Amino acid sequence: MNDVLPAHTPLESIEAVDKGLGEAGYIASRQISTAIFLAHHLQKPILVEGPAGVGKTELAKSVATWMKLPLIRMQCYEGLDESKALYEWKYGKQLLYTQILKDKINSVIGEADNLAVALNKLHDFGDVFFSHQFLEPRPLLRALEQPGGAVLLIDEIDKSDQEFEAFLLEILSDYQVTIPELGTIGATVPPIVLLTSNSTRDLGDALKRRCLHLHIGFPDEKLEARIIASRVPGIDGRLLKQLVSFVQQLRALDLKKVPSVSETIDWARVMVLLHASVLEVDLVRDTLNVLLKFEADVEAASKQIAGLTHKARQDAGVPA
Amino acid sequence: MSGFVAGVPSSSEPLRRFFQVARGAGLRVSAAEGIDAARAVDVVGFEDRTLLKDTLGLILAKTPEEKELYDEAFELYFKRDEFAGGGAADDDEDHADGGMPQRGAQAAGDGMGGSGGQSLGSLLEGDDRAALAAEMEKAAREAGVENIRYFTQKNLYARRILDRMGLRGLERDMEAMRQTGAPENIGRAQVLEGKVEQLRDAVRDFVERSLLLYAKGETEKFREELLKSTRLSNVERRDLDRMRILVRQMAKKLAARYAKTRRRRLRGQLDTRRTLRRNMGWGGIPFITVWKQKRIEKPRVMVLCDVSGSVAAMSGFLLMFLYALNEALSDIRSYAFAGSLIEVSEILEKEPVEQAISKIMSTIGYGSSNYGNSFADFEDGWMQFVNNKTTVIILGDGRGNRTDPRTDVVGRLSQRCKRIIWLNPEYRSAWGTGDSDMYRYAPFCNLVTVCNTLRHLERVITDVLEDAA
Questions:
Q1: Kind of pairing between the strands at A212-215 and A71-75
Q2: With respect to CATH, is domain B297-466 assigned 3.30.450.40?
Q3: Chain B, nearest residue to A29 by Cα
Q4: How far is B289 from chain A (nearest CA, A)?
Q5: B74 contacts B57 by C-beta, under 8 angstroms
Q6: Can you tell me the distance from the alpha carbon of B442 to that of B435, in angstroms, rounded to the nearest whole number?
Q7: A12: which chain B residues are within 8 Å (Cβ-Cβ)?
Q8: What number is the ipTM of this complex?
Q9: pLDDT tens-place string over residues A105-122
Q10: What total number of domains does chain A contain?
Q11: What is the least distance, in Å, from the CA of A77 to any CA of chain B?
């Protein structure tokens, strides 16, 4: 199965994946790199689970940038069905063409003696109106048809209905879809498929079985610092250390929604904009709503800001 | 079980055993996943252990909980592999302080010329730990130690392993040595006896570790199954924690299934808009019809729990279950009664169920129950909140200590609400005996059922969620 890989594949080793993703601006943990490496070599989709904002969607984007493949994204939602996910007929075009071609039809079947002959003649045209040129490909079909392969991101699969999950199985295991009017369409180059889920509901076993299961949690202090440094280039090293230490402490608190990596990045950007170089209690208090998204959380955390800031400054070696 | 890896390269033997370990730990490793794992290992190889761990984890463990189980199983299994190597390292120092005239003993052993037991005898006398460990592993494999499931099988497997290592032959030889009466032979037999004893310990230890390795999940599962069908009033204190976890698991499963708004098709009502759209491909000629759908509402539940004496344990579990289900219910109000009735929703919402329940119990519980009085309290205070969407669950044994049962209140309640479900922890044969008014209440209830184990509870609650429309 491995001999149909695209020629330009840079996926010869896990280190290469690590480096490539890094160049695309995504600092991957070892597990993430292994998953991408295996997904490619085993030709299996990856199911990425984890809390919101740890970079599940970003991973797909970075893989696409790095491998210079088009990213095709399908956002799932309740009620998503195959006409929006797979294909639809361009019925407007069909109607228009039948109107335009009305006169031609007369010339084709005009000389027919009876109905049977006319019908036969029409048959010769086959399913001209249900051919590829009247097909409107939706994300899934588009991903399969990309000549050089693609990165297909099926975002928030847990938001879709269970029926839709079952519908995905054919694509995920064989990289092909069946369109009744046209037959089975297989992928020219199997796309790299990433599915993301926030675990709002348990996914079916059949789906899970077909995927590699990657769980991305919150990164540890070192990794998070590297991520921030790569995303917010202008940031001062000491400030970075304080930010990360503060956020890591915040995550240990009992909050409704703990800040994610994306929130840390936002916060770091805010700090850079405000030309801050040291974490000050007042500054933290004023910008806390960047990190915390619930009023109750802000309240709970603001009581402890002083302590957390102090600890963060100590960790970074800033004199009090 | 060994058939499925056909066509997979030779690396599969240790993998196959690891799958068995993983299954023992409670992971579901299907045949297809086994093949995928073998293919993945072909790509990454066995050399780098963290890489191997990451790789297999991606394929075998599908939830955060499974990841934890997997990590544990992986460490346990591959640590065990190293044990054999570690034994060899210890070997040298043992030689040093062993204090045994080894060379001589070995030579004598060779001279014995016995069968079967001889090799074991010389191994023991030679004190060659690495070889012994290897021999033990081999014998264990032949004895099929990976099939061990229950701790009662420990002796059985230990015996089998010892037999396969040739202990019987050795014992016969030792007996023969003693028979000769020569002092040097008797001495040798004695030394050997000590060694055999050590071997027994080692084997027993080994079997114990195997049990842990292969059967941990299995034994847990067995206990859990048992607990699910134990009468809740009989659950022992030490099992309570496990019961709580079980309840939470069951509730989580149900909540996952019913937490989303569901829809039911209304046959006979065409959804014109969606039908047209669906059939655009055929120029709007409706080959495929789409029917209107109706939302299935989440159930509104009112629970009336008897918290007196014998029913108390059951009430605790019912409340625990319902509050764990919170997200699958649109509204839940709970009332506790013994002699009289109070609303306890607030206590239950504020505090974790376990604490709330003990608080409730201490407020009104453990008295003798008066059903009539309690129902009258309910009518006075809360009947007005009951509407035709409310499911009323009453949990109690219906024994009102010969007070007026006030079936008229229950009658009015049954007219207002959608349905009444009465759960009775007593067996059917006890209903209506003594002061039980169960059969007087029964006509007003949509469902009266025995409910005294977790399994009953799960079934009833599934019913409630299922028929919510």
A1: unpaired
A2: no
A3: B54
A4: 15
A5: yes
A6: 15
A7: none
A8: 0.79
A9: 777 666 667 778 777 777
A10: 3
A11: 13
